[in-house]
Specification:
It is a single chain. The chain contains 12 helices and 13 strands. By secondary structure, it is α/β, with parallel strands linked by helices. The protein has 2 domains: about 160 residues, 3-Layer(aba) Sandwich (Rossmann fold), CATH 3.40.50; about 140 residues, 3-Layer(aba) Sandwich (Rossmann fold), CATH 3.40.50.2000. The protein has a 7-stranded parallel sheet. α10 crosses α11.
Length: about 325
């Protein structure tokens, strides 16, 4: 199958392109957001060669079986670059990564009412909160390539992964970091994290650095379900997280502590930091759950079923 999709979410796309299809990734000079192509920074993400870059000029003659869009503007780009009408001349899935913003009565999805589309949410929470009207929706939960069990917990500190913590502020719980740091060491990683006292690292290096920390702390207030949380569980890290959005579904009690009370979360972190054996056992439970619920095979099989349905309509 030949699948057109844009490089928007690096971690999600890294999992998706493992599926063995031919993936057409638009690229434009300067690699702007609508034409980023494959990852250009060495070591950031590993994509197979069948995820190939294609220019807008080449798309007009390209054979495409189905397209996956992740932003409203991509619906227009399909028409402009391929000459085909999304949902009518070309099967299209609208993949929604994010939880909706704003008043709950105004959370109308931008693709709602568009003919011929199917909207795929990455969490059941997102499907519940987005108003998609009569447009068909489904949920395909995240899957990640298994990085293997790497937990050592040698650093008596918590690790946090958050991208652009200053711009996103309260959404990502950036304001909570100071409170956590009053009581325990916290190291922050992620794109744009340096102003918040963190470090930007290539993905491969991040997967080595995280499990050296004794606990993974997830202070996110309102977002979808961070793939870094799932990766930390795969690595064998115990988890302490805000009990918001999809986190209560993703993290079972045996894998860590969830609460909306920051004091409870702080105590849980300190207990794990003080007891390496408890942290190790809890992390093993986290890994067991992550492999079962967020394994790459289940994720790819679910997408294959949906894409087959789309192309045979």
């Amino acid at each position: 199958m030949r699948i057109l999709l844009w490089h928007v979410h690096g971690s999600w796309t890294t999992a998706f392109v493992q599926g063995g299809h031919d993936y057409l990734i638009p690229v434009r000079p300067g690699r702007p957001p609508d034409g980023r192509g494959r990852p250009s920074r060495p070591g950031t993400f590993d994509w197979p060669p069948n995820a190939a870059e294609i220019t807008p000029g080449q798309l007009a003659e390209a054979e495409i079986d189905v397209a996956i869009v992740q932003r409203p503007a991509e619906l227009d780009l399909i028409t402009r670059w391929t000459g085909r009408r999304p949902g009518l001349d070309l099967p299209v899935v609208y993949l929604e990564h994010n939880a909706p913003q704003g008043r709950i009565a105004d959370m109308r999805h931008p693709a709602a009412g568009h003919p011929g589309l199917v909207i795929v949410h990455v969490t059941h929470f997102n499907q519940l909160f987005w108003d998609c009207g009569h447009t068909p929706t489904t949920v395909i939960e995240h899957g990640v390539p298994d990085p293997g069990y790497r937990y050592t917990g040698e650093l008596e500190a918590a690790a946090v992964v958050v991208n652009e913590p200053l711009r996103r502020g309260r959404v990502t719980g950036t304001d909570l970091l100071a409170e956590f740091r009053r009581w325990l060491p916290v190291n922050v990683f992620g794109m744009g994290s340096e102003p918040a006292g963190g470090a930007d690292l290539p993905h491969k290096v991040l997967l080595d650095e995280l499990p050296r920390h004794r606990v993974y702390l997830h202070p996110i207030r309102w977002t979808s379900l961070g793939l870094s949380l799932i990766e930390a569980m795969h690595l064998g890290m115990p988890v302490v997280a805000l009990a918001t959005t999809e986190a209560p579904e993703a993290v079972p009690r045996a894998a860590g502590t969830l609460s909306t009370n920051v004091s409870v979360l702080t105590r849980a972190c300190r207990d794990l930091l003080a007891d390496p054996e408890l942290a190790r056992r809890t992390g093993l439970e986290a890994r067991k759950h992550a492999l079962a619920r967020y394994g790459l095979g289940r994720f790819l099989n679910a997408w294959d079923r949906l894409l087959a349905e789309m192309t045979y309509r």
